[in-house]
Task: inverse folding
């Protein structure tokens, strides 16, 4: 899955790549730069994919607000739990928010 974000401080658009394979780490590409995809180190990314049961096929509406990409995903046995994940476009770091209520307010 590819998600587009914008960093207003640096004036850069970035593409976040999230794989459905647990063995692959998230990657970021800065558009307009002569750079290649950068793998986000494990310390800056949450556990992804099969290791915690996230169903990447069920990532729902995304929003880029200021310099954060927000998306909702499901995890756990049968995908019964919801999680809101934010990605800081400028610093290329993830944060996980476990409360469904917040997800519904931010994502709609």
Result:
């Amino acid at each position: 899955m590819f998600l587009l974000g914008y960093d207003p401080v640096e004036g850069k658009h970035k593409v976040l790549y999230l794989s459905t394979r647990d063995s692959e780490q998230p990657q970021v590409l800065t558009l307009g730069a002569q750079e290649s995809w950068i793998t986000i180190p494990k310390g800056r990314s949450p556990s992804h994919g099969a290791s915690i049961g996230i169903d990447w096929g069920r990532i729902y509406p995304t929003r880029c607000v200021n310099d954060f990409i927000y998306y909702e995903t499901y995890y756990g046995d049968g995908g019964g739990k919801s999680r809101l994940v934010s990605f800081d476009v400028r610093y290329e770091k993830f944060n996980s928010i476990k409360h469904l209520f917040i997800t519904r307010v931010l994502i709609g």
About this structure: Residues 2-107 form one domain. Residues 5 and 14 are 5 Å apart (CA to CA). The mean pLDDT is 74.
